[in-house]
UniProtKB/TrEMBL annotation:
<dbReference type="InterPro" id="IPR002931">
    <property type="entry name" value="Transglutaminase-like"/>
</dbReference>
<feature type="domain" description="Transglutaminase-like">
    <location>
        <begin position="171"/>
        <end position="238"/>
    </location>
</feature>
<dbReference type="InterPro" id="IPR013589">
    <property type="entry name" value="Bac_transglu_N"/>
</dbReference>
<dbReference type="Pfam" id="PF08379">
    <property type="entry name" value="Bact_transglu_N"/>
</dbReference>
<protein>
    <submittedName>
        <fullName>Transglutaminase family protein</fullName>
    </submittedName>
</protein>
<dbReference type="InterPro" id="IPR038765">
    <property type="entry name" value="Papain-like_cys_pep_sf"/>
</dbReference>
<dbReference type="Pfam" id="PF01841">
    <property type="entry name" value="Transglut_core"/>
</dbReference>
C-alpha cells in the first residue's frame, strides 16, 4: 500500500512572540517494511530546518524564528510505501527462542525497553489485577496477544478522559483513555514481565469501511521484541496486529521520546490546531 500524509500544526498565540526554537518529529521512518518515498516541509514564518538522528533512530528537525509572529504553521507532506503481512499468529515459540529470551545478553541489549519510565509505571496491585485476568503465559507472543485482548475489552476509548500528561498508573485506574493510554499501560505490563517493548507513534489509515479507531492526529501502538523474529507491532486500541494501515513516525520508550512538536519561545500562551489527512494512493 502507498499513502500520502498531510499533517498541519497551527499555533496561534494570544500576543506576538519571538525567539521561537522548535523541535519536530514529523518525518516517517524507513525500514524493511516501510519506505519513505518523499517528504516536504513548509514553515510559516519561513525558516530552515536542521535535521539529526536521535538515539532511537528517529529524524528530529529543529528550526528557529527570531522575529515577532502571532501564528506559526508547520505543514508536512509525506508519501510512504508499506508492505506488511499477518505474522504473529504463525510464530511458533521454540526452545531456542526461549533460551535467547532468558539470556543475559538479550536482557542487556534491550534494557532501555525493559525499564519503567514516568509514563509506564504501574503498582504491584495493578499488575496483579492484570495477571489474575490473563495468566502468566511464559510464551511472550501468547502473553502479548492476551494482554492486548484484555486492554481492548476492559478499557473504553474516551478522548475526554485523559491528556498527554496521563500516566499508565492513572489510566489504569480510569480504565479509559486514548491510544497513548492504551499503549502506556500495555508497555508497563510487558516490561514488568520482562518482555522488551517500545512506544510507536504514527498515523492510522481509516477508510469508510474500516472499524479501526484512532485519534484525529497521530496514533500510538506497541512493538514487542520476539527473540529470533524481531519487532512485532500490536495495536491495543483496536486489538489488531500492526499491518499496512499503520504508518510509523517515531519510536521510543514512551510518549516523551516521540512528542511531534516541542517549542520554546518568548511571549504568551498559545492555541494549537492539528489537521491530519491520510490518503491511499493505490486506488487513484
Amino acid at each position: 500500500m502507498k499513502f500520502e500524509i498531510q499533517h498541519i500544526n497551527k499555533f496561534q498565540y494570544e500576543s506576538e512572540v519571538d525567539q521561537s526554537l522548535n523541535t519536530i518529529r514529523l518525518k516517517p521512518r524507513s525500514d524493511e517494511r516501510q519506505r519513505l518515498l518523499s517528504y516536504r516541509i513548509a514553515i510559516t514564518p519561513s525558516s530552515l530546518t536542521r535535521e539529526h538522528t536521535d538515539i532511537w533512530g528517529n529524524t528530529v528537525g529543529t528550526f528557529y524564528i527570531p522575529e515577532q509572529h502571532q501564528e506559526l504553521e508547520i505543514q508536512t507532506t509525506s508519501i510512504v510505501s508499506i508492505q506488511r503481512a499477518p505474522f504473529i499468529h504463525r510464530i511458533q515459540y521454540s526452545p531456542e527462542m526461549q533460551t535467547i529470551f532468558h539470556s543475559q545478553l538479550f536482557y542487556e541489549h534491550y534494557l532501555p525497553y525493559l525499564k519503567f519510565t514516568h509514563f509506564t509505571y504501574m503498582t504491584e496491585n495493578q499488575l496483579e489485577e492484570v495477571y489474575h485476568a490473563i495468566g502468566h503465559a511464559e510464551n511472550p507472543v501468547l502473553f502479548s496477544l492476551n494482554l492486548m485482548q484484555y486492554l481492548y475489552s476492559t478499557f473504553e476509548y474516551d478522548p475526554c478522559a485523559t491528556d498527554v500528561t496521563t500516566t499508565a498508573n492513572e489510566a489504569f485506574v480510569l480504565k479509559r483513555g486514548v491510544c497513548q493510554d492504551f499503549t502506556h499501560v500495555m508497555l508497563a505490563v510487558l516490561r514488568a514481565k520482562g518482555i522488551p517493548a517500545r512506544y510507536v507513534s504514527g498515523y492510522l489509515y481509516v477508510d469508510e469501511h474500516s472499524a479501526l479507531v484512532g485519534d484525529i492526529a497521530t496514533h500510538a501502538w506497541v512493538e514487542v521484541m520476539i527473540p529470533g523474529i524481531g519487532w512485532i507491532g500490536l495495536d491495543p486500541t483496536n486489538n489488531v496486529e500492526v499491518l499496512e494501515n499503520h504508518i510509523i513516525l517515531c519510536i521510543g520508550r514512551d510518549y516523551s521520546d516521540i512528542s511531534p512538536v516541542e517549542g520554546v519561545y518568548t511571549g504568551g500562551k498559545h492555541h494549537l490546531t492539528v489537521k491530519v489527512n491520510v490518503k491511499a494512493l493505490n486506488h487513484l
